[in-house]
Specification:
The complex is a heterodimer. Chain A is mostly beta strands. Chain A is about 0% helix and about 50% strand. Chain A has one helix and 34 strands. In chain A, β16 and β17 form a beta hairpin. Helix content of chain B is about 20%, strand content about 15%. In chain B, α2 runs antiparallel to α3. Chain B is globular, with a radius of gyration of 15 Å. Classes of the chains: A mainly beta, B alpha+beta. The interface between A and B is medium-sized, with 41 and 24 residues.
Chain lengths: ~350, ~150
């Protein structure tokens, strides 16, 4: 990989007056950008990064690690709490603070929210038609599992709702919920690395948008391995591949436009067209084009399929994702790197029941 | 109640405050399934070393509890190793008077159910401690932000 960038990526450095940003993402109702801070505030900005409002949303002043929207409700999560508020315009209808630490929160469709609680399991929040908010905890029945990062995949033909979850050394899970949003079961995929014969530590998962494969995902191992699944619900085992010479500890994987983006502790990697090629079952050549941006950042988010947001040490950087697809190396065309398919053994997926309780 | 078994203490004392340390059965596999547990493969000298580094650099919260990291220096690049069975990378050591043995356990990155005898306490490392770790040169700002958000290193 060539890391000498001939022309730097054009970025906008957003000013937060010295406050650290710990979450960024879409505010889909207003088509704006949201930025959660380390002291429990939320900055709302337009797509150019201009601040429109700033609100203290958490009395705890804890760092925000997730914000999600569903119907008339907003959920904000931290290491110490999950706050869910239903409102109509500016009128607050109902608010509940769940005193549970989470790794984040996502919308699970119109029904409400789902949040990973680490070794404690996970919880769902249902938005009831009468305006109430119902929390429910769940965990593997008779099996200890770590719930770390989640992404909503969609609904199956039978009406079940499917969420994928990176489960650290417990692998990748598909969480199945019924029409009433109550979780009913898990499909667990576990993987071992051949070199050390240890469980691979899966730390992120993202959906690969596809009309033909609604439950296709790519997951990220902490060793920078990518694990591709056509259908997380099926009995097919994922395909694990590892690029050689990737640097840093893996932090995040995202996909849009048929491309795959990986953030590590020291680089932002772009693998153009890899998602498209995997979904099309193309045979891959021995090397692939990988663009590398040396940057130290705590997280990487996308918004509206076109904006990239890096929570970098130099500040919050806003840029166009298309810029990552341009070969900016000094010696253009020299960013081909090799990869290996034979380092991982995926076990046949296991189906597990869940233990569900009221929160 | 002294949670330490007098026979299971480390022979050394911390370099800075001459504090003694004990290995509690509860956090070494004899507790309930909900108790944080040190990695069985972690040598006891290394567990004491995490406590000593926390004491040496005064990585403390406002209540005097200490927090330590398990660090491997790879040619100038610091690697943070897990020290607990649930992917914990930070250990918490409850504040004790200097006449008593200190003890510690791997601290979950997100708030867990509080044990009865610790009700009302934060039971996860406060933000202040991560800022101290940056000042001491152990963490980069990006790593501190990740820990504040409950993410892995």
């Amino acid at each position: 990989v060539n890391d000498n960038q001939a022309t730097p990526i054009s970025t906008k450095l957003l000013d937060f007056s010295g406050t650290q940003v710990t979450w960024a993402g879409e505010l889909p109702l207003t088509h704006e950008l949201g930025f959660g801070t380390e002291d429990g505030s939320l900055s709302v900005r337009n797509e150019e990064g201009v601040e429109l409002s700033y609100e203290r949303v958490l009395e705890s002043k804890e760092a925000i690690n997730g914000v999600a929207f569903s119907g008339d409700a907003r959920a904000v999560s931290t290491r110490g709490e999950l706050l869910v508020k239903r409102s109509s315009g500016h009128i607050k209808l109902k608010e509940i603070l769940f005193p549970v630490g989470t790794h984040g929160v996502i919308s699970n469709g119109a029904a409400g929210f789902i949040a990973p609680l680490g070794p404690s399991g996970a919880m769902t929040v249902e938005l009831l038609p009468d305006g109430h908010i119902q929390g429910r905890g769940f965990r593997g029945y008779d099996v200890d599992l770590y719930f770390y990062k989640m992404v909503h995949l969609g609904s199956s033909t039978s009406g079940d709702d499917i969420v994928a979850c990176a489960a650290r050394t417990d692998g990748i899970m598909a969480i199945v919920s019924g029409r009433d949003a109550i979780p009913t079961g898990l499909v667990i995929h576990k993987c071992r690395g051949r070199k050390l014969n240890e469980s691979v530590d899966i730390i992120d998962v993202c959906r690969l948008p596809s009309d033909t494969h609604p439950f296709a995902t790519v997951s990220l191992g902490i060793d920078n391995s990518l694990h591709f699944s056509f259908d997380l619900l099926s009995d097919h085992t994922p395909l694990g591949l590892r690029f050689r010479d990737m640097q840093g500890i893996a932090y995040a994987v995202l996909s849009t436009g048929g491309h795959i983006f990986m953030l590590t502790s020291s680089q932002l990697y772009t693998v153009p067209n890899l998602a498209d090629r995997l979904l099309a079952r193309e045979s891959l050549s021995d090397t692939m084009t990988v663009h590398r941006w040396p940057v130290e950042a705590s997280d990487f988010m996308m918004a509206y399929g076109k904006h990239g947001i890096l929570l970098a040490d130099k500040g919050v950087l806003l840029f166009e994702l298309n810029d990552l697809l341009v070969d900016r190396s000094v010696d253009q065309g020299r960013n081909e790197i090799s990869w290996d398919l034979n380092q991982y053994d995926w076990e046949a997926p296991q189906r597990h029941a869940l233990e569900v309780s009221s929160a | 109640m002294d949670v330490c078994d007098q026979k299971d203490t480390h022979p050394g004392r911390t370099r800075r405050n001459q504090r003694s340390y004990c290995f509690t059965p509860k956090h070494h596999g004899k507790g309930s399934s909900g108790d944080a547990r040190w990695l069985p493969s972690l040598p006891r000298d290394e567990e004491f070393g995490v406590f000593d580094m926390a004491d040496w650099h005064d990585l403390s919260d406002t209540s005097g509890n200490l927090y330590g990291l398990r660090i491997r220096n790879m040619a100038g690049r610091l690697e943070f190793l897990e020290l607990g069975t649930q992917h914990e990378v930070i250990a918490q050591f409850w504040e004790e008077s200097d006449q008593k043995h200190w003890h510690g356990y791997p601290s979950w990155p997100v708030k867990a159910k509080e044990p009865v005898n610790r009700s009302g306490q934060e039971y996860r490392p406060p933000r202040l401690v991560f800022d101290k770790m940056v000042e001491a040169g152990f963490l980069k700002p990006s790593q501190a932000r990740r820990l504040k958000a409950g993410k892995h290193l």
